[in-house]
């Protein structure tokens, strides 16, 4: 059932890429489905001096990239959009924002609810949060929710600093850290699938699982994001957040839990049991790579991309073996892999069972694959075959109505923000554990000079990624 929501959105960075490519199309979908109707307004802010009319035109132009023939609806939708020129460091501008928000709240009867969305560079998050507080933008009788986008820091120290700054102004319960993988349908469906399939859930532990593989592969290179990538690399960009959250969905206990606090505690406990890495274990358990040009010279090497240093040692590929020390998962390798310029785009979890599963009536060495990017119901494979045709009855796909996420990721996450549902957001305690783990890898890597580039564009990464599994007698399920 659709319940209309009321709020004034203040989007810092309202003229930027994230806002136009992700936020406005998602808000439009929510408008069309009735979650947003009469009682909302969007204030876009950025330094450039746009008028309301010009801002609305930019919103409509970006919507046209995603929707056809709906110009009248777009025009009606855009009447909820307003622009306020703003520099994050200027206190006066916050007063202007506060007054505009109050006026629009009266006009649209938005219930004094505020969503402060940081679609700006992370270095501004602290300043903006502080000013929202000090200039009195928060309302007394509605909610005040702060939304921030990854990256949440670049290591534990910077994440602590960032968190320290924003938590002076907003309590943890009002901070919504977006990891858009947590808005993806399959990632949200994993607990539902686990909760509704007793035998599958019974088999998800070290007695029955040989290994679990998480692959987030892209066929494209860094495109125009070379500058950002030079400060990140795939370890920070994909592993610390997306891959860890996917592991959280498949490996934390009690998928039937409904309470956000319990769900987060279970995830925190899991991340708290990540097995520490010595520098030598980083060398044996983690592989890094950087793409070279393909042999045809059709594709540039990473070092030839715009805004990338000619001698860059940033990794565009990583594979690794993550282990946990807890009753459920000790001894089970979680192999992870993510890279750019791999043969195909693929986001998947492969759960490889051992031969003990015959005790549960499951065929020995069964592989269950959960495809993350699919949007229809053909997103589970059993031994490579669509589960519906596999004639195995130990896993059933729940009814569509039981699924949580049937929407585009940002759309689903915005509904959660408007509903005060924090299940699908990243909490600070989770970040602390995952950054500690990632920092150990980064520190070791930064102390050594890699032999880059070391894989050809369009391939599965360096050979060492295959050997990592072969050493344990395992192999990647997804192989070219
Ligand atoms: N783009 C994505 O797909 C994506 C994905 C994941 C996360 N993110 C995160 O989302 C955030 C925004 O990224 P983006 O790609 O949208 O960046 P962007 O296109 O560069 O937009 C940045 C916005 O910030 C505004 N801005 C810059 N300096 C400002 C200042 N001093 N005061 C007020 N506004 C200022 C810019 O407008 P003016 O120049 O007019 O001020 C612009 O609207 C970043 O934290 C990024 O890491 C983005």
Automatic annotation (TrEMBL):
Alphabetized GO MF terms: glucose-6-phosphate dehydrogenase activity; NADP binding
> Where is substrate bound in this sequence?
180, 184, 218, 237, 340, 345
Catalytic class of the enzyme: oxidoreductase
Q: Does the keyword Transport apply?
A: no
Per the database record, which ranges form the Glucose-6-phosphate dehydrogenase NAD-binding domain? 10-188
Q: A GO CC term?
A: cytosol
Q: Does the keyword NADP apply?
A: yes
The GO annotation for biological process reads: glucose metabolic process; pentose-phosphate shunt, oxidative branch
Q: Which Pfam families match?
A: G6PD_C, G6PD_N
Q: Which reaction does it catalyse?
A: D-glucose 6-phosphate + NADP(+) = 6-phospho-D-glucono-1,5-lactone + NADPH + H(+)
Question: Which PROSITE patterns does the record match to this protein?
Answer: G6P_DEHYDROGENASE
Which EC number(s) are documented for this chain? 1.1.1.49
> Organism's domain of life?
Bacteria
| Residues annotated as catalytic | 242
Residues passing through the membrane, by range: none
Keyword annotations for this protein, in alphabetical order, are: Carbohydrate metabolism, Glucose metabolism, NADP, Oxidoreductase
Q: Which InterPro entries match?
A: G6P_DH, G6P_DH_AS, G6P_DH_C, G6P_DH_NAD-bd, NAD(P)-bd_dom_sf
Domain Glucose-6-phosphate dehydrogenase C-terminal positions: 192-476
Instruction: Describe the function of this protein.
Output: Catalyzes the oxidation of glucose 6-phosphate to 6-phosphogluconolactone.
The family annotation for this protein states: Belongs to the glucose-6-phosphate dehydrogenase family.
> What is the protein's given name?
Glucose-6-phosphate 1-dehydrogenase
Lineage start: Bacteria, Bacillati, Bacillota, Bacilli, Lactobacillales
């Amino acid at each position: 059932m659709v319940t209309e929501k009321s709020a004034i959105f203040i989007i810092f960075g309202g003229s930027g890429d994230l806002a136009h490519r992700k936020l406005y199309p998602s808000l439009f979908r929510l408008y069309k489905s009735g979650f947003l109707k009469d009682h909302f307004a969007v204030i876009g802010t950025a330094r450039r001096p746009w008028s309301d009319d010009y801002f609305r035109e930019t919103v409509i132009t970006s919507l046209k990239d995603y929707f056809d023939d709906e110009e009248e609806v777009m025009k009606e939708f855009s009447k909820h959009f307003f622009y306020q020129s703003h520099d994050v460091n200027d206190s006066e501008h916050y007063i202007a924002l506060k007054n505009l928000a109050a006026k629009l709240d009266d006009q649209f009867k938005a219930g004094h609810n505020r969503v402060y969305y940081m679609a700006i560079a992370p270095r501004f998050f602290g300043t903006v949060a502080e000013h929202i507080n000090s200039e009195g933008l928060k309302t007394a009788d509605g909610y005040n929710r702060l939304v921030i986008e990854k990256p949440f820091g670049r290591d534990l120290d910077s994440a602590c600093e960032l968190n320290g700054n924003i938590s002076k102004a907003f309590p943890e319960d009002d901070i919504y850290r977006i990891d858009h993988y947590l808005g993806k349908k399959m990632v949200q469906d994993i607990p539902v699938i686990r909760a509704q399939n007793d035998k599958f859930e019974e088999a998800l532990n070290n007695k029955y699982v040989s290994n679990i593989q998480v692959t987030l592969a892209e066929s494209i290179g860094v495109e125009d994001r070379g500058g950002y990538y030079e400060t990140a690399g795939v370890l920070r960009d994909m592993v610390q957040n997306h891959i860890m959250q996917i592991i959280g969905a498949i490996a934390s206990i009690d998928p039937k839990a409904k309470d956000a606090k319990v769900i987060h505690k279970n995830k925190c406990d899991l991340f708290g049991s990540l097995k520490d890495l010595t520098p030598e274990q980083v060398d044996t358990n983690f592989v890094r790579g950087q793409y070279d040009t393909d042999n045809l010279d059709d594709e540039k090497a990473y070092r030839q991309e715009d805004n990338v240093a000619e001698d860059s040692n940033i990794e565009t590929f990583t594979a690794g073996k993550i282990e946990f020390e807890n009753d459920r998962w000790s001894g089970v390798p979680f192999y992870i892999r993510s890279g750019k310029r791999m043969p195909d785009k693929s986001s998947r979890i492969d759960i490889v069972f051992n031969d003990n599963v015959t005790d549960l009536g499951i065929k020995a060495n069964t592989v269950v694959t959960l495809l993350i990017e699919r949007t229809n119901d053909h997103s589970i494979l059993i031994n490579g075959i669509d589960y519906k045709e596999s004639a195995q009855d130990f896993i059933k796909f729940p009814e569509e109505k039981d699924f949580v996420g049937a929407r585009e990721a940002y759309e689903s996450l915005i509904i959660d923000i408007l509903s005060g549902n924090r299940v699908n957001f990243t909490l600070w305690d989770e970040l602390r554990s995952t950054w500690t783990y990632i920092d150990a890898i980064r520190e070791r890597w930064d102390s050594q000079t890699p032999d880059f580039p070391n894989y050809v564009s369009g391939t599965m990464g360096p050979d060492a990624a295959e050997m990592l599994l072969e050493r344990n007698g395992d192999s990647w399920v997804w192989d070219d």
